[in-house]
Amino acid sequence: MPIPIVTSELADRIDKSEIAYMLSDLSVLSGGNNPFSVDTERFGEAVGFRMGAVKDWEFNRVLGIRDTSDYELDGIVDWYRDRGGPCYLDLVPMLTNKRLRERLASRGFYHETFHTALYCVPSINNAKPREGLVVREIGEAGIEIFSDMYMVYMDDLGLSKSLRRKGEAQVKIGYPRSGWRLYTVTIEGESAAFGMLHVEDGIASMAGAATVKKYQRMGCQTALINRRLEDAAREGCDLAVTQATPGSVSQRNMERLGFRVAYTKAIWSNVFGD
Questions:
Q1: From CA 23, how far away is CA 19, in angstroms rounded?
Q2: Pick from 102, 159, 223, 270: most CB atoms within 10 A?
Q3: Which residues in the chain show pLDDT less than 70?
Q4: 61 φ, ψ (degrees, to nearest 5)
């Protein structure tokens, strides 16, 4: 199947797929007594995400913003201010306009950084993992290992030991769940990496993934991507999507495996550093 050309309609689908998996994934961390202080709110078409325990932009942002009304913009600003957290907004080039940027600037927002969305058509004709490297899809029986690997992904956020333990417990309770497929990688029998696949409305989202430091650059993520693309194809998905820092190793790896850039988002912020 040929890779479709990016249109506003395709960009909208890709953007909404990120909203879908973020809502589902963060609902896991918000379970129990909500140790990460996760909160979400809808503002018209847009959805605001907040994680009070973590200041990273990825968990404190608004997705799906379009030509939002002044009333909705004021609501977004007030919602984050009332919760004492940072606020970031993802602006997709073909889905937002100059007027929106002007209105954000008038409220103290500025363009801080970029983030790239990539897409491809999933296929089952992918390279096999190197010898000794095994990718497994796991269910309830493997959730203990998966939950520990999931927290490897969260470790870059500087979590305390207490919060890490609570997060691991939440993952054990919250997964497996509908719409998700979970994978681990072992090298010579030792846990090396993990990856997640979220499927909804014909789109397979390559969600969280991480590799233990000692096993980096050994093909773990390439093997995970290929396996998830195969499973997405077998599920009948017409698109696979992912995100990466522009020009990063992750983006280059994705492009080597057939992904194309859909768009590069402008991340706007009202967070001013020193």
A1: 6
A2: 223
A3: 272-274
A4: -145, 170
